[in-house]
Design goal:
Order of helices and strands: HHHHHHHHHHHH
Largest sheet: none
Distance between the termini: 22 Å
Radius of gyration: 19 Å
Strand content: under 5%
């Protein structure tokens, strides 16, 4: 058991060190959501008025802010699994597989490492809150960080499941973009999910990211479409399923 725990820690630490040394990755992960938030959000806010059932009018920039954090978690979490494909190509993954640790420890270590990196990126996005007028007290920040980690673990596990099937980095990137873009746009990150056409409402509700974004919006704005229990249950169930799949697939890796 101690070998497995040490293996999880080592893999987690490796991902964090790679992230710390890759300055361009850090900058890119901040710039992309910032562009969505500042340029797209500002442009659309000129022609949109967001009205909630409570009667509050927070403004479009404030409304999409939790969604942009969700986008940061999604892309960073999933693409952190790209290192698995790279490790397989260079032969490092085979060395890890023959190490005296269980295969499930490798999957858990990769999941925690990617989720931690994604959470750090999400925390960096908090610097934009005062710029756009979002008031985040210490209590809100303390609440939102575990939510980001909770969601990031689920999304990283999803990326690991995909990476277990992929043999090339190009294939992984294409397939995951095909999955992530619809997940993001159908999560309620950019628009309210009430009063949607039936077909879109169905897609929004079967999208697990919808409930994660709703959790973030609940924490930052005290407004949500679903209940806290629903958001936690769906996000947690998705995370458990993806983690279980990741563990099973890694156990079958050659």
């Amino acid at each position: 058991m101690s070998n497995n725990l040490m293996g999880i820690y080592t893999i987690w630490l490796r991902d964090l060190r790679r992230f710390r040394r890759d300055k361009s990755r850090i900058i890119g992960a901040i710039v992309q959501p910032a562009l969505f938030l500042i340029f797209l959000g500002t442009g659309l806010s000129r022609g949109l008025t967001i009205t909630f059932q409570s009667g509050d009018h927070p403004g479009y920039l404030i409304f999409i802010y939790p969604g942009i954090i969700g986008m940061t978690l999604l892309f960073t979490s999933v693409f952190s699994a790209l290192s698995i494909v790279w490790d397989r190509e260079v032969g490092f993954l085979k060395e890890v597989m023959v190490a005296p640790i269980s295969r499930w420890a490798v999957a858990i270590g990769k999941s925690l490492g990617g989720a931690t990196v994604a959470t750090i990126q999400g925390i960096l996005m908090l610097i934009f809150a005062p710029i756009i007028g979002v008031k985040l007290g210490v209590g809100i920040i303390v609440t939102i960080i575990p939510i980001m980690l909770f969601l990031a673990i689920s999304l990283t596990s999803m990326g690991i499941v995909a990476a277990a099937y992929m043999n090339s980095m190009q294939g992984f990137t294409i397939v995951m973009n095909f999955i992530m873009l619809p997940m993001f746009f159908l999560s309620g990150a950019m628009f309210p999910i009430s009063k949607l056409p039936l077909w879109m409402a169905i897609l929004v509700r079967i999208n697990p990211l919808t409930y994660g974004v709703d959790l973030l919006r609940m924490a930052t704005m005290a407004q949500a479409h679903f209940s806290l229990i629903t958001n936690l249950s769906v996000t947690g169930a998705f995370g458990l399923i993806m983690t279980a799949f990741a563990v099973v697939l890694f156990s079958r890796q050659e």
